[in-house]
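Lab notebook, design round three. We kept the backbone fixed and only want residue identities now. Task for the bench partner: fill in a sequence for the structure below.
Input structure tokens:
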């Protein structure tokens, strides 16, 4: 079962004390010195070092040679001199102008042009370094350029990258077997983006309803405030006007109830209900954690009525909240897990639906597919991701360091913060309107060498890579406190 295997840890043999608290991993590289702030350059035990000691080191308790080890701890994260790429494309301002002119404006990025990433840090085209506290919306859970993930990608790039599913390839067996085992399920459907995993689950739920339960017009219950992606069907059941308006006609067959309200869900279930589709924690809505009894009640209701429970763990899963899947905190096992983002190791888009054969068995040859889904490169990287998660190290880092993050953030309530939500290294921080909008605070953090992003005007979202160190968490908290002061 995934929860127990994922959280298992072992003692590190042959450990050597490390001089200070750990900092996040990053590959060796040249940097300038400055006496002010922590920096992330470290070495890291690469393969067989077990997890417990690394996590202990992350919390400063028992550093060892397996822990990320700081070198030159006084360097500034914001004054590195090593300029990177981008010169051929012009200055940062010129590149932003070109992007504005030639890329459709479906995003509103902060004005920074990133050229390199290492561990929890990125460097812009001018050589300025930033602690990445968004981690590509949790797609970079394992940090930028994790050596084991890069090695898996490089090795596979040189060998075989794409066959389509018309033929088998030699990375598929280990990928599907190991991912299914991590999820505690029989099988997986490999896809690419998160939205494709959601679409796949919707198709599976409808087909299961038609073929197994004889429902002519199946309905799927979703939650208010949901975010499951950007396809026409998915935005059809979004209640975010910006995401939805103007994209009709909309796909029918969805019923919306308030998130976290099990009574409302109970009332909405009918004989036509095929599935309930929920984020285990609502990320885009502002890192909204449902009440403790919500998922246990939803599980009981759905099981009783033969309704599938689909947990969207695309953002919340794969270590982000301190467990492999966020719904583990609720002691609930869904029928289908939706996975994406971090499954691709921040390298390639990889998503999947994990479930048992009685449900996923409704897919038969020709009913569903994707040219790139489960391709050899994706499979090699995702298998390496699953192996990282199997150690339990990242889940534990998130739990230990997340506890510190949340304690520090909670301490800011009343000083520019009105509420803090989340789990593990994932937080939604509501900003006092007196201080400004969440975007204002994100811009102040940008000046201070921290990347973070707002959601819905008032909420600042923090989701650093799980390789962030305790020192860096402390630094983030200090900088946020200063940014809230203006
Ligand atoms: C919970 C959730 N589901 C689905 C998606 C869609 O994933 P993608 O952007 O890879 O299509 C996202 C993206 O943010 C998400 O947070």
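Proposed sequence:
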């Amino acid at each position: 079962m995934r929860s127990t295997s994922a959280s298992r840890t072992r003692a590190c043999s042959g450990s050597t004390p490390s001089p200070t608290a750990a900092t996040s991993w990053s590959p060796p590289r040249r940097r300038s010195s400055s006496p002010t702030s922590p920096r992330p350059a470290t070495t890291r035990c690469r393969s067989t070092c077990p997890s417990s000691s690394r996590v202990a080191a992350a919390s400063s308790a028992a550093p060892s040679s397996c822990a990320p080890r700081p070198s030159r701890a006084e360097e500034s994260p914001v004054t590195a001199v090593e300029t990177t790429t981008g010169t051929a494309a012009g200055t940062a301002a010129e590149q932003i102008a070109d992007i504005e002119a030639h890329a459709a404006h479906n995003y509103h990025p902060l004005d920074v042009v990133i050229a390199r990433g290492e561990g929890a840090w990125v460097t812009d085209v001018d050589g300025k370094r930033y602690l990445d506290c968004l981690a590509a919306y949790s797609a970079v859970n394992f940090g930028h350029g994790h050596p084991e993930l890069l090695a898996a990608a490089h090795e596979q790039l040189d060998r075989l990258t794409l066959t389509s599913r018309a033929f088998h390839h030699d990375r598929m067996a280990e990928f599907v077997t190991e991912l299914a085992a991590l999820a505690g399920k029989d099988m997986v459907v490999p896809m690419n983006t998160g939205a494709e995993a959601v679409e796949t689950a919707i198709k599976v739920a409808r087909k299961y309803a038609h073929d197994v339960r004889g429902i002519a017009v199946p309905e799927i219950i979703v939650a208010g405030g949901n975010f499951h992606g950007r396809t026409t069907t998915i935005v059809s059941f979004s209640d975010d006007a910006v995401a939805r308006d103007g994209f009709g006609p909309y796909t029918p067959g969805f019923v919306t109830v308030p998130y976290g309200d099990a009574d409302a869900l109970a009332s909405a279930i009918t004989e036509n209900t095929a599935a309930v589709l929920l984020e285990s924690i609502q990320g885009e809505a502002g890192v909204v954690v449902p009440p403790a009894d919500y998922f246990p009640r939803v599980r009981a209701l759905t099981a009783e009525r033969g309704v599938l429970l689909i947990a969207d763990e695309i953002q919340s899963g794969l270590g982000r909240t301190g467990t492999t899947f966020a719904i583990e905190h609720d002691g609930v096992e869904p029928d289908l897990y939706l996975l994406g983002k971090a499954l691709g190791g921040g390298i390639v888009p990889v998503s999947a639906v994990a479930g048992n054969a009685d449900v996923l068995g409704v897919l038969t040859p020709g009913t569903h597919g994707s040219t790139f889904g489960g391709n050899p490169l994706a499979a090699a990287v995702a298998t390496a991701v699953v192996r990282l998660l199997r150690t339990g190290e990242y889940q534990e880092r998130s739990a230990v360091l997340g506890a510190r993050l949340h304690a520090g953030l909670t301490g800011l309530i009343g000083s520019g913060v009105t509420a803090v939500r989340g789990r593990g290294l994932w937080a939604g921080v509501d900003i006092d309107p007196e201080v400004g909008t969440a975007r204002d605070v994100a811009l102040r953090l940008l000046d201070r060498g921290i990347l973070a992003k707002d959601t819905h005007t008032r909420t600042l979202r923090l989701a650093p890579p799980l390789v962030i160190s305790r020192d860096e968490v402390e630094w983030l908290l200090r900088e946020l406190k200063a940014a809230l002061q203006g």
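Keep this in mind before ordering anything: The CA atoms of residues 302 and 308 lie 6 Å apart.
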